[in-house]
User: What shape does this take?
Amino acid sequence: MKHLRFSLVAVSLAGALCVAGCGKSGGGATIRVGEYASLTGKEATFGTSSHEGTLLAVDEVNAAGGVLGKKLELIYEDNRSTPGESATIAKKLINSDKVVALLGEVASGRSLEAAPIAQANHIPMISPSSTNPKVTETGDYIFRVCFTDPFQGKLLAEFAKDTLHAKKVAIFSDVAAPYSVGLAQYFREPFLADGGTVVSDQKYTGGDKDFKAQLTVIKNANPDAIMVPGYYTDVGLIVAQARQLGITVPMFGGDGWEAPELIQIAGADALKNTYYSTHFSPQSTDPRVQKFVMAYQAKYGGKVPDAMAALGYDSVMVLVDAMKHAGTTDEPALRDAIAMTKDFPGVTGSTTLDAKRDAAKPAVIITVKDGKFQYLETVAP
Amino acid sequence: MTELLQQLINGLSLGAIYALIALGYTMVYGVLRFINFAHSDVFMVGAFAGYFLARPLPTDSVFTGVLVLLGAMAICALLGVVIEKLAYRPLRGRSTLTVLITAIGVSLLLQNLGQRIFGANPRSFPALFPVHQFHAGGIVVSSAQIMVFAVALVLLFLLRHVVLHTRTGTAMRALSFNPVAASLVGVNNDRVISFTFALGSALAAAGGILYASNYPSIDPLMGTLPGMKAFVAAVLGGIGNIAGAAVGGLVLGLVETAVVALGGSTYRDAVAFAVLILILLLRPEGLLGRRIAEKA
Assistant: This one.
C-alpha cells in the first residue's frame, strides 16, 4: 500500500511539473508556425507541393534574418489525405507545439476540419489554396491567399461558353469532396443564367475506380463538353475511361486537376482536348514568378513549381509580412495585421484580403499538349 | 438501346473482375472451410508485383503481359504458402474464430507493410498488354475488359480441371470432406493445404494484375473494397462452389452497374453489402449452393 501511495504522489508531482513547465512559446527563441498538409495519400501531390513552397519561403525568410529578430520554425504534419486527421493535427500543433499560426490546407474539406479548431483557439489560419467559400466563413481568424470557387466557377462557365462554344454541358462531380460539390454548383448557376443547359449531372465518390457506368450515361446525353470538378487521382481515371468509351468532346475542370500525376494516370493521349483553371503558371514572364521558379528549381533539383507550391510560398510570405506590420505574434494584433494585407506582391499575383478574408486573384487556364501542361490564357478577377 | 448494351458490357466486365477474385475466396473455403481475409491483400501484392516486374519490360506487348502475369502469380503463390505456414498452420484445429481473427491480422499486416514499403501514394500501373478499343455500332469494348473475361474463363476451367480431374484435386476434395479420414488414407494434409493456398493466392495475383490493367491506379489499400465485394460475390454464388463464384461475380457486377447507371452512384458500395444481407436472409447457401443439413 505504501508503494502505491508513493508512486501516486510521484506521478502527480511529475505531472504538475510538466504542466507548469509548458508555457506559451511567445518568449521562445523561434517563432513557431504549424503546417498540416497531405504529404501522402490520394492528394499527395497537393501537400508535397505546397509544403515545398512553404519550406522554400521559410528558408528564404530565415536566410534574410528571420522575423522580429527571431527565426521561423516550421512544424509540419502529414494528414495522409485522410478525413479526420487534419483536426487531430491542428489540435496537436496548437496545444502541444504552441504554434502562433497555422498554414493549411490545399483541399477545402480538410481545411474545414481544422478551421473551427484554429478559430476557437484564436490562432490565425492561412489556407494556401482552399477555394470553397465555407472555409473563411468559419470565422475571422481564417484566411486564404487564393481565389474562391464562385470566381472559379464563373470563369469556367464563361470559358465553356466563349472558348469551348459549349451550349450543353455534363457535370461529373465528387460527392465526397466539398470542393467538388461547391465548384459544380458555382459553375452551374452562371452557366445556366447565361443560356446554357446541363444535360447530365452525374456523381462519383472520391476513391472510386470505375466510372464507366456514369460516363456511359453522360455519353448518351450528348454534351458539347464535360465538366469534372474533381481531384487529379480520380480525374485521371475519369478522363482515361471517357476516352476509352469513345467520348471525344472537351473535358475541363478546376485547380484540383493540377498535378504531374494527372498525365501519368490518364496518359498524354487521353488528355488531348482537356483544360483546367488554376492559380499560377511557371511559364509566366513576370520577373517575380521567374525568380521564384529559379529558387524553387535550385532547392528541389530542377523540379518545376506548380500552383500549390506557389501558393504555399505566398501563404508564408503574407504571414511574415503581417508579423512585421503587427510587430508581434500576439493575438488579436497578428490576426488584424493579416486582415489588413493589401496589394502584397505575391508570386501568384497581387494579394489583397477583403472583408471576407478572401483574395481576389487572377486565374490561368492550362491545357495539356504533347504530354505537358501548357499555359493557355489568364482570366482577371 | 446502345446505352443499355454498353452498360451491360460495363457490368459484365466489372463482374468478371469480382468473379476472378471470388474464385480464390471460394476455393480456399471449399477445401478448408476457412475464409481467408488476407486474400484481398495478396491481390494488392500481386498488383504491386506486376508493377515492379513490368518496370524493365516494354509496355503494350503480349510477351510482357504474359510474363508479368505469370511472374506475379508465382510470387503470390509463394507468399500464400508462407502466410499459411507462419500464420494459419500453427492454429490448425483451433476454433474457426481464432483463425478468422488471425486472417484479419495478416490482412492488416500486409496493408501496413505495403504502406511502409511502397508508400501510401497511388501509383500509375503501366499498360502490359496492347490496349485497343473495339467499336461496334456505338458500343465500345476495351481489350483490357476482354482480357479479364478471357483470363477469368481460362482460370475457371483450369481450376475446375485441377479440382475434379487431378490427384491433388481429389486430395483437396477428400480434405474438405474430412481431414482426419483423408490423412488416414494417405493424403499429406500439409502439402495439400499449402497447395490450396498457393493456388488461391495465384488467383488473387491474376485478379490484381487484371484489375490494375483496367483501373491503372494502385495503392497499398486498393484490395479492401474489391476484396469485400468479391467475398460478397462468392457468398452470393455459394461459397465453396467454383461456378458459383463466377455467377456471383457477374451478378454483383451487373447489379452494381445498374444501380450506378440509374443515378444511385453514391450507393454503389452499399449495394454489395445490401446484396450480402439479402442473400444471407433469403438463401444463405447462395444461388448455386446446396443446403447441407448438419447432423444433430
Chain B has one domain: 16-223. The first helix of chain B runs from residue 2 to 32. Residues 16-223 of chain B form one domain.
